[in-house]
Design a protein that fits this description.
nine-stranded mixed β-sheet, Alkaline Phosphatase, subunit A, about 600 residues, alpha/beta, globular, Sulfatase
Amino acid sequence: MKKINLMPYVLIYLLLLIKVSAFRVLIFNEKSIWHIILIEFPMWAFLLSVVLLVAHKKMWRAVWLFNLLVSVIFFTITLYMRYYSTIPSYYDLQQLTQSGSVGGTITMLSNPWDFLFFLDALVLFFLARRWKNPVKLIALKHVAVSMAAICAITVVYALQQSIIDVSYFAKEHGYLQSQVAQLYNRSTDSAHASSSKLTERELEELKGNKFVEVREHDSFGVAEGRHLFIIQVESLQEFVLDKSLNGQEITPNLNQLLSESAYFSNVFQQVGAGTTSDAEWIVNTGLYPQGMIPTSNSLSGKEAPSLARALKEKGYGSATYHADEVTFWNRDVLYPVLGYEEVFSSEDIPNVKEVGFGPADEVLFDFVAGELPRQLETYERIYANIVTVTSHTPFEMPDTMQYLDLPSEYEGTYIGNYLQSVRYTDEQIGSFIQELKDREIYDESLIVILGDHSGMHGSLVTEEDHQLLSEFLGHEYSLKDQFTIPLLFTGGNLFEETEMTRLGGQTDIMPTVLALLGIDHDYPMMGHNLFQYKKNLVGMRYYLPGGSYIQSEQFYKAPGAKLPDVLYDLKTMEKRNKNSAAKKHIKDTETLMNYADTLLKVYTE
């Protein structure tokens, strides 16, 4: 009887175990080899066993392709984790067509060590030359069955657990198990989502406020009858406003606007995986996004109560402007759901003076200005939603569009590029505001300016960048600095210079705008009028681990893939011991987010 050589199979599984172990150590700081062997490895080993059993005489080619696919998955997760501080899910396969906007960052995110994930491809090549036609073993069936049994146990156990944060869940239960659990939970969401409801009064009490009817708010109707312009600025963070570098203001035009604005300087981003498109969703519905899934990718097409629809009842015509393809982030689905009457994308906005992946912001604002005369004749009042694109990662600007004379230490750095791109966009906003004044529209308008999400985050922000940021800010760059966006309300003769430091989130923008315009509403939103309420509770489910919250006195970062949970004082960002108030806020945040999912589920598949 011919002796069967087990060595090639042992080496194939050993190579996979080494790769899986490296992945766990890199992504999760894994310290237990037994956790790898019993939780993470069996799922991958089972898939490998299936490949070996099915491949027959083409075994080596199949194994090589399988290991290459696993390497690509691990490599992609590594880069994604560095940029977004969370692991991707199978949902993110839907985003592959959106990669054009971040493709330029891949080189910046990767390092040579990452390519060790592909080293086994070379080893397998030599193994195949050494054992060209290994005999298929009946023992492989036993391996597959054993791995399948272990997988079944770990998956069934994982399905019994709640997914509060995907990264933490994957750390505890395995990456592939986390994907199965997400698929399962998504298929059963309808049953869970309908059970959580809050009245407006209960929602405000949860945030620490006494409920007041909208019509009784002091700010109600302050801007009644005015046109509305919302300018959503790509990657604009709060820390750049009213700041200078070598005597040069980073945002001189926004700074000038502050003298006649109500400025909320303590407002946090709440976007999910859809980033900019999620910000559009939040601002125009007052609802949370989905988190790990771009909200626009999951919309069923059902019309949502929105800012455009609420304003239409008052005689407003609405238009949205974004200088990119309308299919980007499924905006061709999102915009009809939000009820815009006019949609302008790269098909309409001239593709001239291109920067990054679209026309420069000056082209965008010029186009908006060109549409105003027709719209003012067509509609009683207008609502324009303007989404800028130029200040986008990696923030590299042509020399002719650089307004700052950067110190030598900032040249070529990520923070230096960021400041240049923000300075450019600020200049275009200033020109557009002047255009409104020249057309005598400014005094008849309510203008809202906000950032959509952070730009300075993830591993693209190097140690050198952190050092420069600390010098620029006068303190260490914190999570609060990273996630705080500016929010200005301005317009002719509306506000005197006012800075309000009360806590807010992007979900608060729509209810605040409606109150200022004197429009009551009878549909639920997660936010509230920032001019009225002093207390708040803001949830985040992306960039921060799920279960994290920002409360008027506290900032809580839930446990994630690598780090334990931590509680900060919101004002100083100094660490605090978890107290009874924090435990209550954690529970209240879960209630809040469950209700958010209940409201969102109506509009998703």
